[in-house]
């Protein structure tokens, strides 16, 4: 079911004793329901047009002055 971390993309391992997933990269510790919720939230944020515009602006802002003049 859950094989990658919704936060960092790292590998998730299932812990039988706690019945939760643990990310080997960032240490996220969450139930399968919480993992699904985090993935849904990430999917919605990628689909939000305001978020896309915001991300494009940040990319522009962080580019060098030379790159900005070319755009």
Secondary structure elements and pairings:
Layout: E1 12-15, E2 20-23, E3 29-30, H1 32-47, H2 49-62, H3 65-70
Antiparallel strand pairs: 1-2, 2-3
Could you characterize the architecture of this molecule?
By secondary structure, the protein is an alpha+beta fold. Strand 2 and strand 3 (29-30) form a beta hairpin. Helix content is 51%, strand content 14%. It contains three helices and three strands, in the order E-E-E-H-H-H. The chain is elongated. It has one domain (12-63).
In short:
This protein has 71 residues and is α+β, with helices and mostly antiparallel strands. Helix content is 51%, strand content 14%.
Keywords:
3-stranded antiparallel β-sheet, single chain, 71 residues, 3 strands, 3 helices, alpha+beta
Categorize the overall geometry: elongated
Low-confidence stretches: none
Look at the helices and sheets and give the structural class.
Answer: alpha+beta
* C-alpha termini separation: 43 Å
Largest sheet data: 3 strands, antiparallel
Radius of gyration: 17 Å
Give helix % range: 40-55%
Strand content: 5-15%
Give the number of DSSP strands: 3
Tell me the number of structural domains: 1
Question: Reading side by side through the largest sheet, how are the strands ordered?
Answer: 1-2-3
Number of helices: 3
Quote the average pLDDT: 84
Order of helices and strands: EEEHHH
